Amino acid sequence: MTATTETTVTDERVSPPPARLSLTPADAPPGLLDGAWWPRSRDLLRELPALTARLDVCWGRITRVTVNPTHWPVIPRKVPVAGHTVGVGWFREEQDPYKLILLSYTAERGRWDLLVIPPETTAASAARLMSAAAVPGSLLTATRLMDDEVKIRDAAEERGRTSEWDAEGGAAPPRRLAIGLPASARETLGR
User: Fold this and answer.
1) Which H helix or E strand runs over 189?
2) Nearest 5°: phi and psi at 186?
């Protein structure tokens, strides 16, 4: 007896989810970053179409993107985006590992720098980072924002551990000093 399976192939593509993005206002004073992007994965081929499609609307057609390869396992040379292709390049030493640079040859401004929030970041951390990266005129680099967030997270975890320790009884009470007491009294305190 032979088993057969029937498969149906359709030409429909599932649209990627919208880009998670925060941007500085268009009329804001320039800063080191123009906002933040929180991709869902480290797959540029999958993530860039939603990002560039969204930015094409407000900034003009994005034609080129550069990344630092530190956090991207595969960097495609070109990414197809609705109606055009975006070239992708990389710079290891020259570009901040947490920054994405977008270029448009049709827009007046032509270049935007975004903080890239790692996909595994918690929603609370991502919200803080997206807000901080969109502050108009900020002079904080992408790496500095990420380092500051690590400090905030570490401090919160330490406060949580301390609270848990205190709730469970914490440390033993400090020993009483028995200076100037007779030996019998010191023995009683030592128990």
Assistant:
1) helix 183-190
2) -65, -35
